[in-house]
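Format notes (please read before filing issues)

Several people have asked whether sequences and structure tokens are stored in separate files. They are not. Every record keeps both together, in the order shown below: the sequence lines, then the token lines. Line labels are part of the format and must not be stripped during preprocessing.
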Amino acid sequence: MKRIIVIGQFPPPIHGLSHALQTLINSQLSQEFKLIKLDIKDNKKFVNHCAKIIQSKTDGWYFTPAQTAGGNLRDLVYMMLMAISKKPIIVHLHGGGFKKAYEKMNYFQKRLNQFVFSRVSKGIVLSDSLKEILLPVMDIKKISVVNNFVDSECTMDDITFKNKQVSQKNKKSLKILYLSNFIRSKGYDIVLEIANRLSKIYYIQLEFNFAGAFLDVGEREYFFNKLKQMNSQSILFHGIVEGSTKKKLFAESDIFILPTQYPIEGQPISILEAMANGCCILSTPHAGIPDIIKSGINGYLIPQDCVEEYCNKIIELNTQRELLTRIGKTNYEKAKSKYLISCHIEALRAEFENTYLKTI
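Then the structure lines:
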């Protein structure tokens, strides 16, 4: 059995990257490859991490690097130490920020990246349009796609989905969900403005639900000051949601909205979760989102600042319930066929076999 060192940030805390790594370690692949984890989230242990990489006896490396210029300097050291072993290296990017970070680097750091990445066997990104983020340092022939995934406990079952489709046709008030961190570039302020405008149209009955974490005190103050000014009974704040609460919120939502321009956006898991619960998606043509969402099929891609267009689409979906249910059905079926954990692990298996089992 091939021994593979898996290097990255493991839980706790739980976030997209750490959860993906733990899912890999716990997957069926651990029965086919001996997966050894090396948690590098504590930068104070940098020297210790380097020593472990040097001392490790392995048949290959699987690494999830940072996507900032500062984090890149640290990761280049790790990758150079991996390269010394002359064993295959897979680098898996779980976001879309590497290229922008690379463009801000000085000449020396860029050249160092080109040198180190030339020793990498395989680069993995989350979707086709994100292949470009590795092109400054890798040949496109070495770059593959492995889609993100939705946890099974966040995927609606068939009976519940069918009941949801029936209820959508006659329900008086549609529920719209924003679920993400409260960062301005994620577009929560845009959703507030959309809610404000639509609340003034007397014949439209909508409920806007907001869920997620505030990473900054200023953002929290901005959000709640806006809520106070709007004084709307149709806007609900849920804070951080997990488990059954999160599942219920997705299940009850009709439209998922994420007008993001987040600089290091990749393939938002929240969009995939919404699809797995039969929601129509309203988002932006940004990062890897166009690879998931096709306008008119899975929802609509609208530039972040086009508030009026977002409003018009919501009015259209509220009026044309058959359109809403048709999009919801398309998304539900797509999520179950393409974005389940089993699909993600199967794609990783193919990359592992091609990289670690081939003749070196």
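For reference, the curators noted about this record: The chain has a mean pLDDT of 95. The first helix runs from residue 16 to 26.
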